[in-house]
Design a protein that fits this description.
With 424 residues, this protein is of the alpha+beta class. The protein is built from 18 helices and 14 strands.
Length: 424
């Protein structure tokens, strides 16, 4: 038995994620009726839809049994997969970052930057991050009593932090933001390179490839510079990183930069924008966190759960297996649906309410196990520091129009959050 085609089409439809309520309803129905079942959307190979929190953790925990790299790591059409493999000499991936790797490569490549992103090493950055956050709060105050919080603050603040950590000059930040939005917003006519609704899969892949090539040209020049003149930045660590005593391959090095320069800010931006949207719609929660800054870490965790900026990853079974009593065959493809896991009624009390005091809050937005998000500690610090600085001055906030979300089914969040506010 497979999931009904209309429901299967919904869970891969970028427009459903832009709607928010529509995708939530679809996954709630699946958790009730078919929590682990096969979907076969139009033009896509069949895959298991893993909707429950416990089952997502079980797959993530067994990274030798469920691989990232054997097939596409995000849901893709049969036609697009064929085109990518033709372009990439048989590989299903346009890039080869940590996300597309399995062990032993995953462990070796992850180790290169892991130390720099540990909490004890990030503490040295907190004063500088606070300075950056304060600058954005000042800039928001200068807007008067209204702004688009997504575009004016949330997109730009994490971008500035990660680019400084990476070593990208401030003058190049608009270019990095544009490329990131073209990459993740490939299905969104407001954000993609062509400014059109993507109906031709081949054109969509060509557009993605051209964005990736622009990233690679930029970071290739940076690699040459950092090998000749290393600095105290993440770019120097990547440029001079070695695997088994040898420099990284070109594709792997370029992919490392790309994931740092995109996921390193976009997911934090989405969560930050989504948090203020939620607070504007829940004034009681805003009043509580404003009155008691000790609630800020809880706000951070709840906003990560609430927004869940990474919507899915795909895994491939390396052997016959059993999951939640179902027989998974070797080679089967599985979609880990993080928004569904983060709304799982079996784990979260009243999951469709935004509650900053939710404890415990064991969301799966950063993944779990070997592939857990490498930048999670930096993301949490950035959000905590921004809220500490902003809530010390923000007296009130309300929506000033209808917020909108990106049209995307992989990484996405708010596109616009117009607000009216009062500040000290």
């Amino acid at each position: 038995m497979t999931i009904a085609v209309d429901l299967a089409n919904t869970i891969v439809d970028p427009k459903a994620y832009a709607d928010g309520d529509r995708i939530d309803r679809a996954f709630a129905q699946l958790r009730r009726e078919s929590p682990l079942e096969v979907a076969q959307p139009d033009g896509i190979d069949p895959f298991w839809v893993v909707t429950r929190h416990a089952d997502i953790l079980e797959v993530e925990r067994q990274n030798e049994l469920f691989h990232n790299g054997d097939r596409a790591t995000i849901v893709t059409t049969i036609e697009a997969d064929k085109k990518v493999r033709e372009m990439m000499g048989g590989s299903p991936h346009l890039v080869r970052s940590l996300v597309q790797m399995d062990n032993p490569d995953h462990f070796s490549y992850r180790r290169i930057t892991q130390g720099a992103l540990l909490p004890q090493n990030l503490r040295a950055l907190e004063a500088r991050i606070r300075e950056i956050a304060r600058g954005f709060v000042d800039r928001m105050a200068e807007q008067g009593d209204r702004c688009d919080f997504a575009r004016d603050v949330a997109f730009l603040y994490p971008l500035h932090v990660i680019m400084e950590v990476l070593g990208v000059p401030e003058a190049d930040e608009p270019r990095m933001l544009k490329l990131t939005q073209e990459l993740f917003g490939n299905a969104d006519p407001d954000l993609n390179r062509d400014g059109k609704v993507v109906t031709d899969v081949s054109a969509g892949i060509d557009s993605l490839q051209s964005v990736i090539m622009d990233f690679m040209m930029y970071f290739n020049a940076m690699t040459e510079d950092r090998r000749a003149n290393p600095r105290e930045d993440l770019a120097s660590i990547i440029a001079n990183g070695k695997i088994n005593g040898e420099p990284m391959g070109h594709l792997e090095a370029m992919s490392y930069y790309i994931i740092a320069a995109t996921a390193g800010h976009d997911t934090t931006s989405s969560t930050t924008a989504g948090a203020l949207w939620a607070l504007a719609e829940n004034p009681d929660q805003f009043a509580r966190v404003k009155a008691d800054p000790a609630l800020i870490p809880g706000l951070v965790e709840e906003s990560i759960r609430w927004v869940t900026p990474v919507k899915h990853f795909m895994r491939t079974a390396t052997a016959d297996a059993e999951l939640a009593g179902r027989k998974i065959a070797k080679g089967d493809w599985l979609m880990l649906s993080y928004p569904s896991g983060n709304r799982d009624e079996a784990v979260f009390d009243d999951p469709f309410s935004f509650r900053i005091d939710r404890t415990p809050n064991k969301h799966v937005a950063f993944g779990y196990g070997a592939h857990i998000c490498l930048g999670q500690h930096l993301a949490r610090m950035e959000m905590r520091v921004l809220w500490e600085e902003l809530f010390a001055r923000l007296d009130s906030v309300e929506l000033d129009g209808q917020p909108t979300r990106m049209t995307a089914n992989f990484v996405c969040g708010p596109k616009s959050v117009p607000i009216r506010f009062k500040m000290k």
